[in-house]
Amino acid sequence: MILPDNETSVDLLNNEAIARTITELLRERPEQAITIGVHGDWGAGKSSILEMIEASLSPTPDVLCVKFNGWRFQGFEDAKIALIEGIVTELVAERSLATNAGEAVKNIFKRIDWLKVARRGGGLAFTALSGVPLPEHIDAVVGSVKKAIGEPGELLTRENYEAAIAGMSGLLKPDDSKRLTEEISEFRKAFRNLLNKAGVDQLVVLIDDLDRCLPEVAIETLEAVRLFVFTEHTAFVVAADEAMIEYSVRKHFPELPDTTGPRDYARNYLEKLIQVPFRIPSLGETETRIYVTLLLVGAELGEEDTEYQKLIKVARQHLAKPWLSTGLSAATVRDALGAKAASVSNALTLSDQIGQILASGTQGNPRQIKRFLNTLLLRNQTARARGFGDDVKLPVLAKLMLAERFMSRMFDQIASAAAKHPNGHCEDLAALEDPTEARSKPNKKRGDRPKVTDLDDVKTKPKDTEPNESAVLSEWRGSEAIRDWASMPPNLGAIDLRPYLFVAKDRKDYFGAVSVLGRLGAVVERLMGSKLSVQAYETELRQLAPAEAGQVFEELRARIVASDSFDTAPAGVNGMTVLVKAHDFLQTNLLDLLESLPSARCGTWVASGWDRVIRGSEFVARLDALLATWSEEGSTTLRVAALAAARTRKGGC
């Protein structure tokens, strides 16, 4: 059973209210040009809202919806021209205008050809700020195209370029050159005329996935939207994460000062283009529980099931006032599903169990919720296929995976202890789950629960250490997020966790580390500690033989890679730094690891802190080259950090 991650018109998030509001706004004054933004984080449901808008408008005969996905056009053609030509082409095709409005069609495509030539010419930039194309400018453009014929790598065929030259000579005559703004005005007139001929009362263009595009593609698409902004009977609905669009604007105008200038300019640019913004709210705990229940029930029964549709209607009533609901109760599900309720009882159990932490850990992001559930269900199916049977129970697996996903350091500590224990138990976890520990804590309101993040980011409060209590248990007891996780049913301290560690071997082989490392396992565990604690081990690490140091490094590397989370420094990086400082032959291994990391997902940590361990001209040159690569190809934050680090190194600081 896999939960599909495609956009859908089946609303499980109550986003239909947003879609309905946008549709009503569009139809309120169809003659008015308007641009609407649907904003939300990656995976928040923007594409599904566009699907709902299209489904709502499609039955209206005088409304035409056109969809454009900038990501799909990325790398094929100029995105600006692709959007303009795509809108006109679909309009002509949908309304059969090729024969019924021949002159209007020819006129609009002539205008598009002019814009293509202006873009292709290089010197004629397609922007409303362009000046007059002078005769000598046009001659230079034609000459540059003719010259390209002698360079086979720059063209497809001679015929294509001859056609381009002929078109350029005919469209850009020296004796009737116009300002580009005048040509754009003519395009708008031709487009309005085409809408009239087509009998379209309102053209609605739905633009999706702009936040997936490279900055240049995103800006070109938005510039094309600006061309239509003042065209009557035309509306745009742009779905994108506004933070990514703001970044694209700043990237497109690098000459702006690096203070508040770029950010303010980016926001002003977006606010002028997007007249009406809608932001999709993240899911809270109640909404997440309902969403998880609907996802799992729908996966069992199918989206078209009649009883399932009844359950969705009931769920929407709860979602209308989430502050009055705690989710879908078993009685509610039974009433909606009737005899089918028994087959989906696990959905209710799971949603009640994991809703609280899953909502907090994913920050209410629907796509991350789906990804977690898919991984959970796949692992459970794999365990059954491998013959684990009742040794792996779904509630236990779900609770462990919550720790693995949102508190990876704690999960590693639990797994290491269970792998070494003769019965697969984690005694520190059993102590943490002790009911007397829970009774000694004051009851908290649901709204007081902290946001769950990786354990490295969870602030711990100083606590008095109990006699003979391990440092790990003291650390856990000092974290409210971990205590909340431990209080969730079922208790895991007395369960044999070894079958679950085999299920999680796609992440890491905990048993391999125990058997191969032997006494070095304790060294690895110590090097997984905080930056302050690992610095005291450098002298001791120098006593390791080179082969032993290599083994420890490889185990640290495996754990870092297996964490699959690089926004902040993974546990083990600080220990690895001290280890390499103690054994400089491991510099090669360290650089190999850094070069293998997915730069698009790395935070700023990866670009700094290596000066005291990377020494020698050969290794320094590799680090400099890596910083240069990151400054061009890394994540947004990594590019800035890598560029700053490179400048600092060149300055000899």
UniProtKB/TrEMBL annotation:
Q: Where is the KAP NTPase domain?
A: 16-380
Domain of life, per the record?
Bacteria
Extent of Basic and acidic residues compositional bias: 449-466
UniProt-annotated stretches for the region Disordered: 431-470
InterPro entries in UniProt: KAP_P-loop, NTPase_KAP_P-loop, P-loop_NTPase, QatA
Signal peptide region: none
Do you know which NCBIfam families this protein is assigned to?
Answer: QatA
In Swiss-Prot or TrEMBL terms, this protein is called NTPase KAP
Which organism's genome codes for this protein? Marinibacterium profundimaris
